[in-house]
Design brief:
The complex is a heterodimer of chains A (379) and B (396). Chain A has 379 residues and is an alpha/beta fold. Chain A is built from eleven helices and 14 strands. Among the domains of chain A are: 121 residues, Response regulator (Rossmann fold); 139 residues, 3-Layer(aba) Sandwich (Rossmann fold), CATH 3.40.50.2300. In chain A, the strands form three sheets. Chain A has a six-stranded parallel sheet with strand order 2-1-3-4-5-13, sandwiched between helices. In chain A, strand 3, helix 4 and strand 4 form a beta-alpha-beta unit. In chain B, 74% of the residues lie in helices and 0% in strands. The chains are: A alpha/beta (379), B mainly alpha (396). At the A-B interface, helix 1, helix 3 and helix 4 of A face helix 1, helix 2, helix 5, helix 12 and helix 14 of B.
C-alpha cells in the first residue's frame, strides 16, 4: 500500500504544480471567460466572476472540418479573431465532430447567453433556423447560406429545410462570387497564349455555376475591350450548362478534365469543385502546359505546393463577412437578412495574379472599380 | 462430516469466490478510469490549462449544474411550472442520448469477444444500419407508428446483421480472419454511404444527406426541444438485458461462450463452429445496426456523411472496459457518454479541445488492456481470475 500512496501523491502533486505553472498560457481570445480563475484574468477584472455585461460575446460552431480546415471554418474564425483584436469582443468556438453535435453546440452557446452565434455551412441550415426561432433574442449568422430556404410546397419547416420566410435574427452570409469570377476571367483572357481558357464545376448548382458565369462574362468583356476572340471551354451561360465532374472528391477527375481541356487547346483552367481542382493543378505542374485559377481561398497558401502553376484565386472572404457581422453587433446595427460579400465591401476578391504586368494590374483595378460603381455588368 | 455440510460449505465458498471475482472484475476498470482521469489532468496541465476548472466544467456539462437544478426544483415546487426543472436536466439527458449508440455498439463488440471474435466492423455496421433505418423511415409514408417504427428499427438491425454476417461467413467457411474482413467491410460501408448520399438516397436539394424520416418512424422523445432524450436509451438497456439473457441463460449462448473459450472442445462436444461464428457475427452486426437506426430515428432524423465519428471504434474500448459483459458494457458506455457529452461544456468554458476526451479514453484502455500496470501501480495482489480470451490468431 505504501507504493500506492506514493504514486497517487506524486500524481496529484505533479498535476497541481503543472496546473499552477500552466495558468498564464491560455489563448488571448479566451481570456475573459466567465469562469476564468483570477490569475488568468487581467488585473482590472480581478474578481473575474462576472464579465462586464456590455462585452459582446461571439461563438462559432464549426462544421466537421474543424477550426483549422484551411477553408471556411478557419476563415470565419479568423474574422472572429480580428473582431476580438479590434473591438475587444469575447470569441469562442466549438468544434463539431459528428452530425448530432450541430444542434448541441448551438444550444451550448445559447445556454451561455452568447450574443452572436456563427454557424458554418449549409449542413447547419436546419439547426440554425430552429435555434434562431426558439431564441429570438439571440443573433445568428450562417456562412454560405441564407433564408428563406424552403421552396415549393412539399416541405416541413425545421425538418426538410430551415424556414419559409426570412428570420429576423439570422444574417445569411453569401458571396457575389460572379464579381470576383469576372475579374478572374479577365485575367485569364489576358494571360492565355493559346486563345482558349476553360472552367469546370463539381455539380450544376447555383453556388458552383455563379463562379463560371462570372468567369465567362469576364472573358467576353476582355474580348469586347481588346477585340480578341478568347474562347471559354467548359461553360456556356446561354445554355446554362457546361462540364461537371459530378463530385467534389475525385482528384483523378480533376486530372482527366484538365488533360482533355489542354488537348482542346486551353492553357488556363478554373476548377470549381473543391479538392478536385488539386488533381488539375498536379497535371498542370507535371506537364507545365496550363495555369490554374483557385477558388474560395488563396491557393498559393492553401495548396502552396502548386504555387508555380497558380495564376490567381477567386476569393470568398468569409473572414471579412464574419468580421462585418460582428462589427454590426458591436455598434448595435445588426439586422437579419442577407449579407452579400462583394468587391466593394471586400467580401469577395481576386488574389494577386502571377506575373501580371503593371498594365494588367491597372486594367484589373479599373474593371474592379467599374463593377463596384455599376458601369460594368457581370451578368 | 456429513455430505450436506460439505455441500453447504462448498456453496458458501462458491459464493465468496463469486463476490471476490466481482470485486476483482470491477477493481481494475474503476482504477483504470481513475488513473486515466488523473493522467488526463496532467496532460491538460502540461498544455497550459487548469485541470480542476476543466473537470468542473466537464461535470457541469455531463450532469448539469447542481445550482441550476435546485433552482429549477424550487420554481417547480413554488409555482408548479416544470419548465425550468426540465430544462436544467438537459445536460444529463444529453449524456444519456450520447451513451445510447455506445451501448448498442459496445454490445456488438462484446458479443464478438465472447465468441473469440474481434469485430472491428461495428462502425460500418452502424452506417449500414442507419442508412437502412433512414430509408424505411423516409420512403414509406402513411403507416401508423406502431408498424412504421418497429419496421424501421428492424431494417437497421437487418442491414447491420447482413454486414456482420459476411465476414462471419468468410471466417467460418474459409478461415479468413475477421479482423481484416471487418475492417474492409467498414471501408465498403463508408464508400457505399458516400455514393448513396449523393445518388439514390439524396434529398431533393443539393445537400449530400438523406431526406428526413417520417414522424411515424421517429423514436418518441420525452420532453420538448431542445431535449433530445428519447426511447432509444431504454431500448438500448433492454437489448443489454436481452444479450445478457441470451449469453448466460440459453443453450445457444452457452455454445457461443464455449466456442469462444475453447473451440476445439466445443467442436468435439458436437457444437457447430461454423454456425456459431456466423450467428455471432450476424447478431453483433444487428446490434450495431440497431444502434445506428436508433441514432437516426431518435436523434438526427437524417443521415449525412458526418453521421458517426467513431461509435463503432469507441465500442472496442467500451467492450474492453466492460469486460465483455453486457452490464459492464452499459456502465462503460454511460461513462463514455458522460465524458463525450460533458466535453462540449468543457471546450467552451475551459477552452480545452474535445480531443482531450480521446486521450483520457486512450489512457483508460491502455490500463484496462494491461491490467498489470494497474496492479503494479496500486499494489493489488494478483489473484488469478479467469481472463476472457478476446480473440484468436490467424485461422481457427
Amino acid at each position: 500500500m505504501k507504493k500506492f500512496y506514493f504514486v497517487s501523491a506524486l500524481l496529484i502533486i505533479a498535476s497541481m504544480i503543472l496546473a499552477a505553472c500552466g495558468g498564464g498560457a491560455a489563448p488571448a481570445t479566451e481570456a475573459p471567460a466567465t469562469e476564468a480563475p483570477a490569475t488568468e484574468a487581467p488585473a482590472t477584472e480581478a474578481p473575474a466572476t462576472e464579465a462586464p455585461a456590455d462585452v459582446i460575446s461571439v461563438g462559432q460552431v464549426t462544421d466537421l472540418g474543424g477550426i483549422d480546415d484551411k477553408s471556411f471554418n478557419q476563415g470565419a474564425w479568423q474574422g472572429v479573431e480580428n473582431a476580438v483584436a479590434d473591438f475587444g469582443v469575447e470569441g469562442k468556438y466549438l468544434e463539431s465532430t459528428q452530425q448530432s453535435d450541430y444542434a448541441k453546440n448551438i444550444q451550448q452557446f445559447v445556454d451561455e447567453d452568447t450574443d452572436l452565434i456563427i454557424t458554418v455551412g449549409f449542413l447547419f441550415g436546419v439547426d440554425t433556423a430552429v435555434a434562431a426561432k426558439a431564441n429570438p433574442d439571440t443573433s445568428f449568422a450562417i456562412v454560405d447560406y441564407s433564408y428563406p430556404d424552403c421552396f415549393g410546397t412539399d416541405f416541413t419547416e425545421g425538418q426538410t429545410c430551415g424556414s419559409a420566410s426570412e428570420i429576423p435574427n439570422v444574417l445569411g452570409l453569401t458571396f457575389a462570387t460572379d464579381q470576383a469570377g469576372f475579374l478572374a476571367g479577365y485575367a485569364a483572357a489576358a494571360s492565355t497564349q493559346t486563345g482558349k481558357v476553360a472552367t469546370f464545376g463539381g455539380i450544376n448548382i447555383p453556388p458552383v455555376t455563379i463562379f463560371m458565369k462570372g468567369f465567362e462574362a469576364g472573358v467576353n468583356y476582355y474580348n469586347a475591350q481588346k477585340g480578341t476572340t478568347v474562347e471559354v471551354l467548359g461553360w456556356d451561360t446561354a445554355a446554362n450548362d457546361g462540364s461537371f465532374t459530378g463530385n467534389f472528391e475525385s482528384l483523378d477527375d480533376g486530372r482527366s478534365f484538365a488533360e482533355s481541356f489542354v488537348q482542346e487547346g486551353a492553357d488556363v483552367i478554373m476548377p470549381v469543385a473543391g479538392p478536385v481542382g488539386l488533381g488539375s493543378a498536379a497535371y498542370c505542374q507535371e506537364t507545365a502546359s496550363c495555369w490554374i485559377i483557385g477558388v474560395d481561398v488563396d491557393w498559393t497558401v492553401s495548396a502552396a505546393e502548386y504555387t508555380d502553376v497558380i495564376l490567381t484565386s477567386v476569393l470568398k472572404n468569409v473572414n471579412v463577412a464574419v468580421y462585418d457581422a460582428t462589427a454590426s453587433m458591436v455598434d448595435g446595427s445588426f439586422a437579419g437578412g442577407v449579407y452579400v460579400g462583394t468587391l466593394e465591401n471586400g467580401g469577395v476578391g481576386l488574389a494577386d495574379v502571377a506575373g501580371a504586368s503593371d498594365e494588367l494590374k491597372a486594367e484589373l483595378e479599373a474593371v474592379r472599380q467599374g463593377i463596384i460603381d455599376g458601369t460594368i455588368s457581370v451578368e | 462430516m456429513s455430505e450436506k455440510a460439505s455441500k453447504e460449505k462448498k456453496e458458501q465458498t462458491e459464493k465468496q469466490k463469486e463476490q471476490s471475482s466481482l470485486r476483482q472484475a470491477l477493481l481494475v476498470p474503476v482504477l483504470a478510469v481513475l488513473s486515466g482521469l488523473i493522467l488526463g489532468g496532467v496532460v491538460m496541465a502540461l498544455s497550459g490549462s487548469n485541470p480542476f476548472q476543466a473537470y468542473a466544467a466537464l461535470f457541469a456539462g455531463s450532469f448539469g449544474s447542481p445550482s441550476v437544478i435546485i433552482a429549477g426544483m424550487q420554481t417547480y415546487f413554488a409555482t408548479g411550472d416544470n419548465n425550468a426543472l426540465v430544462r436544467s436536466l438537459y445536460p444529463f439527458t444529453e449524456s444519456l442520448v450520447t451513451a445510447t449508440p455506445y451501448i448498442f455498439t459496445g454490445l456488438a463488440v462484446a458479443i464478438g469477444f465472447r465468441a473469440g471474435l474481434f469485430n472491428i466492423g461495428a462502425e460500418g455496421q452502424v452506417f449500414i444500419g442507419a442508412l437502412c433505418s433512414a430509408f424505411i423511415g423516409y420512403s414509406i409514408k402513411g403507416l401508423p407508428m406502431i408498424i412504421h417504427l418497429p419496421l424501421a428499427l428492424l431494417a437497421g438491425a437487418a442491414g447491420g446483421a447482413f454486414w456482420g454476417m459476411i465476414p462471419g461467413y468468410l471466417k467460418a467457411r474459409f478461415g479468413a480472419h475477421e479482423v481484416v474482413n471487418t475492417i474492409m467491410m467498414n471501408w465498403i460501408a463508408f464508400r457505399l454511404s458516400d455514393w448513396l448520399l449523393k445518388g439514390p438516397m439524396q434529398a431533393s436539394n443539393f445537400r449530400p444527406v438523406t431526406p428526413n424520416v417520417q414522424a411515424s418512424a421517429e423514436l418518441p422523445r420525452f420532453f420538448e426541444d431542445p431535449l433530445r432524450f428519447n426511447l432509444g436509451f431504454f431500448l438500448a438497456l433492454l437489448f443489454a438485458y436481452l444479450v445478457y439473457w441470451f449469453l448466460f441463460k440459453t443453450t445457444l449462448g452457452f455454445e457461443i461462450r464455449s466456442v469462444g473459450a475453447n473451440p476445439d472442445a466445443a467442436k468435439y462436444a458436437g457444437m457447430s463452429i461454423v454456425k456459431n461464428i456466423v450467428l455471432v457475427m450476424s447478431l453483433a452486426g444487428a446490434l450495431a445496426g440497431l444502434g445506428g437506426g436508433a441514432q437516426v430515428l431518435g436523434v438526427d432524423h437524417w443521415v449525412g456523411q458526418g453521421f458517426s465519428s467513431g461509435y463503432g471504434f469507441d465500442a472496442i474500448a467500451i467492450a474492453l472496459l466492460g469486460k465483455s459483459h453486457p452490464f459492464g458494457v452499459v456502465l462503460a458506455a454511460l461513462l463514455f457518454g458522460f465524458l463525450r457529452s460533458g466535453a462540449t461544456n468543457m471546450q467552451s468554458m475551459a477552452g480545452i479541445p474535445v480531443d482531450i476526451i480521446s486521450i483520457i479514453q486512450g489512457l483508460v484502455i491502455v490500463f484496462v488492456a494491461a491490467p498489470a500496470i494497474i496492479r503494479w501501480l496500486y499494489r493489488i495482489k494478483s489473484i488469478k481470475v479467469e481472463e476472457t480470451v478476446l480473440t484468436r490468431g490467424w485461422g481457427k
